[in-house]
Design brief:
Elements (H helix, E strand, L loop, with lengths): L6 H67 L5 H31 L6 H33 L14 E8 L2 E8 L4 H12 L6 E4 L21 E6 L7 E7 L6 E7 L4 H11 L6
Parallel strand pairs: 1-4
Antiparallel strand pairs: 1-2, 3-4, 5-6
Main location: nucleus
GO biological process, one term: positive regulation of transcription by RNA polymerase II
Subcellular location: Nucleus
C-alpha cells in the first residue's frame, strides 16, 4: 500500500473504473448492432438494384435483334416512309400488351386434352351448326328472290325441312336421333328399331302417356329437342292363336283356352272334357 491512501479509497476507485468499462462495452455492442442492421439493409438494396440493372441489360440486348429482324423482313423504303412506319409502330406498341393478355386468356379458357367422346360430340355440333347456317342462307336467298320477282314469274318456295334432335327413352337408356321435322313416325320407328336391333313391330312410341300415330310428324305434334319420347317394348299377339270360351250347362264353370289354327280340334275337345262335367255334350 502507498502512503497517504487507505483501503476504502482503493475500493471506490476500482468501482468507478469497472462501471465505466461496462458502459463502454455496452455502447460498443450497440454500435456494432447498428452497423450490422445498416449493412444488411444496404446489401438488400444493392441486390435489388443489381437485379434491375441485369433485367434492363437483357432487354436492351434483345431490342436491337428484334429491330434487325423487322428491318430485314421489310422492303427498302425512303427515310420519310421509315420514320412514318416507326411512328405507327410506336402507337401500336401501346396496345400490344393488352392484346397479348386477351389472347392468353382466350387460350386458357379453351379446353385442352379432351377425351375422344367429347371431341366427337364437338365435331357433330360444329357440322350441325354449319349445315343449319347453310340452310338458313339458302332459305333467305329464295325468299328474297321471290320478293324481287313479279306475280306472274313467281313460283312456290320450297321450305327446307329443319332437323330436330329427338330424345327417345328405351328402358333405362336415352337415345338421341336427328330427324327432319316433317318426317313421319313410321320411318322414325324403323330407324329406332335398327339402332336397338329389334323389329319395328315390337315397339310403341308414347308422348305424355299417349301413343303416337305413325302418320304424325314432329312438326305436327310440336315436338322439340327437350321433349322425351318413351319407347315401350310391345309384343303383338300371335295371329295363328285364337281364344275359345267354353261354359257348362249349369253355368257354373267357364273355361278360356287359346287354340292354334293349325292344331286339330279333337285335342282341344279332349282337354275341355276333362275340365268340364260329363254332360257337356
Amino acid at each position: 500500500m502507498m502512503e497517504g491512501y487507505s483501503d476504502d479509497e482503493d475500493s471506490s476507485v476500482e468501482e468507478i473504473f469497472s462501471g465505466r468499462a461496462d458502459k463502454i462495452i455496452q455502447s460498443q455492442h450497440e454500435a456494432f448492432e447498428k452497423l450490422l442492421t445498416e449493412g444488411t439493409e444496404e446489401n438488400a438494396e444493392k441486390e435489388q438494384e443489381d437485379i434491375m440493372i441485369k433485367i434492363r441489360e437483357k432487354l436492351e440486348r434483345k431490342q436491337p435483334s428484334r429491330k434487325a429482324k423487322a428491318g430485314a423482313s421489310l422492303p427498302k423504303k425512303s427515310k420519310e416512309e421509315v420514320s412514318s412506319a416507326r411512328g405507327r409502330r410506336g402507337r401500336s406498341k401501346r396496345n400490344t400488351k393488352v392484346e397479348v393478355q386477351e389472347i392468353e386468356s382466350k387460350e386458357e379458357v379453351l379446353p385442352l386434352n379432351l377425351p375422344a367422346k367429347a371431341k366427337k360430340r364437338l365435331k357433330k355440333l360444329e357440322l350441325k351448326t354449319s349445315r343449319q347456317g347453310k340452310r338458313m342462307d339458302q332459305l333467305n336467298q329464295r325468299i328474297l328472290s321471290a320478293f324481287n320477282t313479279t306475280e306472274e314469274d313467281s313460283a312456290c318456295i320450297d321450305i327446307i325441312e329443319q332437323e330436330v334432335n329427338l330424345k327417345i327413352r328405351y328402358l333405362y337408356e336415352i337415345l338421341r336421333l336427328d330427324v327432319n321435322e316433317n318426317e313421319s313416325f313410321a320411318t322414325i320407328v324403323s330407324k329406332v328399331a335398327k339402332l336397338l336391333k329389334i323389329k319395328s313391330s315390337e315397339i310403341v312410341m308414347c308422348l305424355d302417356d299417349k301413343t303416337i300415330d305413325l302418320n304424325a310428324t314432329p312438326f305436327s305434334m310440336n315436338i322439340k329437342s327437350w321433349n322425351i319420347i318413351d319407347c315401350i317394348p310391345y309384343k303383338p299377339p300371335d295371329e295363328n292363336n285364337f281364344l275359345i270360351k267354353m261354359q257348362s250347362n249349369d253355368n257354373k264353370k267357364k273355361i278360356d283356352i287359346y287354340a292354334d289354327k293349325v292344331l286339330k280340334l279333337t285335342e282341344k275337345v279332349f282337354i275341355i272334357c276333362l275340365c268340364l262335367p260329363i254332360n257337356v255334350f
